[in-house]
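Supplementary Text 2. Reproducibility record for the structural model of the 211-residue chain.

All settings were left at their defaults, and a single model was retained for analysis rather than an ensemble. We include the record here because the model underlies the residue-level annotations in Supplementary Table 4.
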Amino acid sequence: MTNFNDIQIIIMAGGIGGRFWPMSTPYYPKQFIDVMGVGRSLIQLTVDRLKPICPVENMWVVTNEKYISIVKEQIPDMPVDNILAEPEARNTAPCIAYACWKIQKKHPKANIVVTPSDALVINTTEYQRVLNKALSYTSDKEAIVTIGIKPSRPETGYGYIAAAEPTTVDEIYKVEAFKEKTDLKTAEQYLVPQGLQEIRFTFVPRAKKEE
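Retained model, structure tokens:
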């Protein structure tokens, strides 16, 4: 397993949660709301299930400038320097690149997890097991592991992963292709072949210091 201090987790929390309107608004989006009625917001539940992986001091939140105060209030033990403000909302790739750049300056050998702040994970034990396996795999490789979920129904709101041949590690496969979000008919076809899994945006890359 990778060194505990090498693990750094990026939590993406800049979205406005438009699909959850009127519960979620641009002023107080869904990641900061107790959607499940358990006394914890989605971002707090995200931090809770990641604490067995690494301490809060090793977690980073990327969010919009106007949500900084909410993050500080809901995750009071997170270092202020680990809360990164985007001047304006961008897509996922710039968000990840910005956070990885900040982490790489302090932790050039970091083993990084990138995850959304608003995912609902029921089986947290299994999630942690899979995440630890991915971190172990990337700890000594220049590799990225994307965690997928076997779909139970056709879904147009997510992309898909087409798996290729297995690696030397059980449950980890090489990727043949990434399939973008698509229409219902194509999504139904994706459920027929074996190996296609939904992408739920949990990545495990390893930081690489540029020469």
